[in-house]
Amino acid sequence: MTKTNVLFVTLDQWRADHLGATGNPIIRTPNLDALAGEGVAFLNHFTCIAPCGPSRTTFLTGIYPSNHRSIRNGTPLNHSLTNLALEARSSGYDPTLWGYTDTTPDPRILGEDHEAFLTYEGVMPGFTVGQQLAANSIPWLDYLAAKGYEIPGPGYAIYHPDPAYQLPPGRHPLFAPSRFKAEDSETHWLADKLIADLEAKPSTAFFHHLTFLRPHPPFISPPEYHDRYDPADMPPPVQGATRDEMRAMHPALGLLYEMIPQSAFFMGGEGRAVDLDDAAVAQLRATYQALITEADNNLGRIIATLKAQGRYDETLIVVTSDHGEQLGDHYLWGKIGFYDESFHIPLIIKPPKSWKASGGRQVSEFTESVDLMPTILEGLGRPVPRQCDGHSLMPFLRGETPAKWRRAVHWLYDFRDPVDSLPEKRLGISSRECNLLVHRDAEFKYVHFAALPPLLFDMKNDPDETRNLAEEPDYQGVVLDCLQELLSWRMRYEYGELANLSTSDKGLVGNRIY
């Protein structure tokens, strides 16, 4: 029997409404659209946490953040937990990473003075590193230097725009392209590395985890892509009220408006991201779409290689994101807080032909990032570890809908600052109180803060989340219902790997109970 190949791909900071196959009329994503046509697109898929490191920890362990507790970039991960790479390795694969997982190891094993804690960009245990792409970008920068590019400095300095570019009249300065060509971008370079490995091992069953940086900022695209989308065609950001009215809606928004800098999204940015003007917002949105199209084209090159090798049909392809991007909606940028733009992400699963799965289907049921590990392991015929909180999506791939499926999604966002304590000082709360949990179903979204007022949004009548109903007298029953649902979910999914085991006259017994 032919062993299933696995290609597990993430596009960093890719939000759900930026995919042609699921309804975006502007963006061009032909390769992703084709995958969705052969597989299943999940329309209501959500990450359980942001930012990058915690979200990747979540889908690689199958555990809710409330349980694994690696909740910030740089928060150590409990060494006792297994993960997708370790489980695949025990099944005879050599799980290989192309990109990054942003995993911080357990100091109880390495000791707190270990050099591993100088960065949050460690690698999840179990992966062989095919090519790491860290923030310092040293291997890629070395590649660019060897091709004759002048490197302006370490890390993200390469993303300053091309100094020789002549800006056309009427164009925003952010229209300027990168100084490197598309064939030399970090997206193309990383795809080349994976393609070279596929070509070097044409008959070896593989398990590849490819993590494209794009469309993560800095928002600048190569010259071949930077004019793909007209800023005039970009939908305006959601702004249900003025900045001052939004600040007054909740203390957390005021904090985020003050703390998010423009420099986090493009080189040379000054001031706060909340103050970007309409022209800048439109251009950044156009560039964001260009970066997605670039990632789509390079994924297409990998798919073409698999087809040329005759391996495509027996390859499980999973494409998703770690989290979304606000893109100026609600005057916010990045992956933060509680709005859907940061947590609603795409998911496409193209199963192997031998699975005789149902292709071209779109699933509207709620799914979560914790579901990916159980799904992939079940597809490979591996048992799902007891630690996993997620549920396998295999029934949906077979064209079925489970009788008892979740009616809501939940996510955690932690905004503590262990280094400088800025949120703690500005809000007057402790680090333990700098967090929120979201209960989000088809009708309402309830946001519970540990030490700040709650929020409630009517997702049917106000899908853009512009009006907080948490203090409205007519909605106090809804707040209570949502709070009870949130508490019940939290109780059901307390860490239970050992709780479902028991001694007996037959020894240790028990099983994985949903």
TrEMBL record:
Record has Hydrolase as a keyword: yes
Keywords of this entry: Hydrolase, Metal-binding, Transferase
One Gene Ontology cellular component: cytoplasm
InterPro entries xref list: Alkaline_phosphatase_core_sf, Sulfatase_N
Leader sequence segment: none
Database matches in Gene3D superfamilies: Alkaline Phosphatase, subunit A
Domain Sulfatase N-terminal: 5-379
Keyword Membrane included in the entry's annotation: no
GO molecular function: metal ion binding; sulfuric ester hydrolase activity; transferase activity
Organism domain of life: Bacteria
Entries under PANTHER family matching the protein: IDURONATE 2-SULFATASE
Full protein name: Sulfatase-like hydrolase/transferase
Natural source organism: Sneathiella chungangensis
Higher taxonomy: Bacteria, Pseudomonadati, Pseudomonadota, Alphaproteobacteria, Sneathiellales
